[in-house]
Every structure is written in structure tokens, then in C-alpha cells.
Design brief:
By secondary structure, this protein is mainly beta. It has 1 helix and 13 strands; from the N terminus they run H-E-E-E-E-E-E-E-E-E-E-E-E-E. It has one helix at residues 2-11, and strands spanning 14-16, 21-25, 30-32, 35-37, 45-49, 54-58, 61-62, 69-76, 81-88, 97-103, 109-118, 138-140, 143-145. The strands form 3 sheets. A 6-stranded mixed sheet has the order 2-11-10-5-6-7, with no helix packed on it. Strands 1, 3, 4, 8 and 9 form a 5-stranded antiparallel sheet that branches. The chain is elongated. The termini are far apart.
């Protein structure tokens, strides 16, 4: 009895270590990897967006009404694995969060991938007039001049 249970456990699917954090710019395509070994026909892979507890796909079939989401399944018989990559086209910052790839084993197994979508418009420009100056004081003749923002309450030396 024990040997049969151990054999069943050894034959169950498991995840192969893959990248679990992806960072990209808004508008780019996100590729969220999920590689499963020992995937038998009786098991199914599901992708879920954890922030909203939304099922995005079951197997290769997308469940989201958002057409930007799709799943690419590649069978890799040479390494006895299956890749289930979640694709998100034209990403936005709203897509940032944790995504779960799971297999319906008993108990369920899951692999979480974190996506961070950066908006290039949110990056503060170094030469922007709206950023605080980090210039060091400088001297002109016998005067020390410190550049300040107009709302800066500290006093400069003249």
C-alpha cells in the first residue's frame, strides 16, 4: 500500500524552476512561464490573476473576455515537460500583480509569477524642473551659491 502511494506521488506533475518575476514597459508583450514535468492527460493547467481572483485560462483555452490574454502550450517530450506560457499583449500598469499557474493534482500544486509593468511616463526625468535639485553648492568669487526649489524652506548662503 505504502509503495503504491509513493509510486503515485513520484508520477505526479511538478514544476520546473523558471523565472518567477518579469518586469517590462507598458505596451510590451509579457511572457509568463510555467513548465510542468510528468504532465499526464488526466491533469489540467490553469492560469489565474491572483489580484482579482480571475481565471484566465484552462489548458490552452483562454477564459478571459480580454483578448490580450492567451496561452501557448508547447509539449517537450525530450525532457518530459510541457510549457504553458501566459501571454499578455499590449500590457498596462493595471496588469501588474501576481499570476498563478496551477495543476489540478490532489492537493493542487501552483507556481506564482509576478509581473511588474512600468509606465515610462512615470519615470521622473533627471533634468525635469519638477524634481528637487541635487546640485552641490558652488562658489562664484567670494559667494557660495546653493540652488533651491522655490518651495524649499531651507535658506541658501550668498
Amino acid at each position: 500500500m505504502y509503495e503504491e502511494e509513493m509510486k503515485m506521488m513520484m508520477e505526479q506533475p511538478y514544476f520546473v524552476k523558471t523565472k518567477n518575476k518579469t518586469t517590462l514597459k507598458s505596451g510590451e508583450v509579457a511572457f509568463l512561464p510555467c513548465r510542468v514535468k510528468n504532465m499526464g492527460k488526466e491533469y489540467m493547467v490553469t492560469w489565474m490573476y491572483l489580484s482579482e481572483v480571475t481565471i484566465l485560462s484552462v489548458g490552452s483555452m483562454a477564459f478571459s473576455s480580454d483578448q490580450r490574454f492567451s496561452v501557448v502550450h508547447i509539449n517537450r517530450p525530450r525532457i518530459q515537460a510541457d510549457d504553458w506560457t501566459l501571454l499578455i499583449n499590449t500590457t498596462t500598469t493595471m496588469d501588474s500583480g501576481k499570476y498563478e499557474c496551477s495543476v489540478n493534482t490532489l492537493p493542487k500544486i501552483s507556481h506564482v509569477v509576478e509581473l511588474e509593468v512600468e509606465d515610462p511616463m512615470d519615470v521622473i526625468m533627471q533634468d525635469s524642473p519638477y524634481t528637487k535639485s541635487t546640485m552641490q553648492p558652488f562658489t562664484v568669487g567670494d559667494r557660495v551659491i546653493t540652488m533651491l526649489d522655490e518651495d524649499d524652506q531651507s535658506t541658501g548662503q550668498y
